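In the laboratory, one determines a bound structure by crystallizing the protein with its ligand and collecting diffraction data. In a computational setting the workflow is compressed into a single prediction: the sequence and the ligand go in, and a structural description comes out. We illustrate the idea with pyridoxine-5'-phosphate.
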Amino acid sequence: MAELAVNIDHIATLREARGGIEPDPVTAALLAELHGAVGIVCHLREDRRHVNDRDVRMLRETVQTKLDLEMAATEEIIGIALEIIPELVTIVPEKREELTTEGGLNVAADIRYYTTLVQRMHEKDIEVSFFIEPSTTQIEAVIETGADIIELHTGTYANARTAHDVQLQLARIAEAAQYAHESGLRVTAGHGLNYVNVAPVVSIPQIVEVSIGHALISRAVIVGMERAVRDMAALVRGV
Ligand code: PXP
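The predicted complex, in structure-token form:
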């Protein structure tokens, strides 16, 4: 059975639309936990376009499940992670001009750099997840770094428009999940998942968690955090 981690970035996006103090992502995180999230995810971007340093520090103090800090592997953000010590960091590629994370990280391109990063995080008991495409090359690179977890990028699956392509993308994810699991990695998934497309992903037995933001926060705007989180948690758990 898979579990739900809630990404609260877009609560902060709404706050930043006016540059004020509401809505507060910290409040949203607490509600998400109350209603079934097993983890809170936030992406501290270089440009601080949504979640900011204050949010991350307050989340560190208040999140009781686990805090997953999504981050680019830059020295500035690495320093913040080593200081606040989330349970987990998820390393993602980051481009200033992108609307959201585009594609998985190319871990294979710099295994030595990422291995050092994993060692630095492990020294502080921070687990490391790499957000990657469902590719054997990337999984093998992650194994070499000594990381704990892979998060499989589900964006291509979510954007697939024909039944054939949907099945193709699901098969890629399932195959990667099985290979990574057999190699000793924990396997999670995320990006572009919503109330309609999440079920086939969480039915892949090796996927133990999904990270969901945009669709869940969009629904919460209409029906409230409680219902949005409960309904998604039920879908993810398959109950
Ligand atoms: N996982 C990762 C690594 C991400 O970068 C994002 C987007 O911030 C998500 C999951 C959540 O994606 P979405 O907002 O489309 O649910």
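Residues 163-182 form the longest helix (20 residues). Keep in mind that any predicted model is a hypothesis to be tested, not a measurement.
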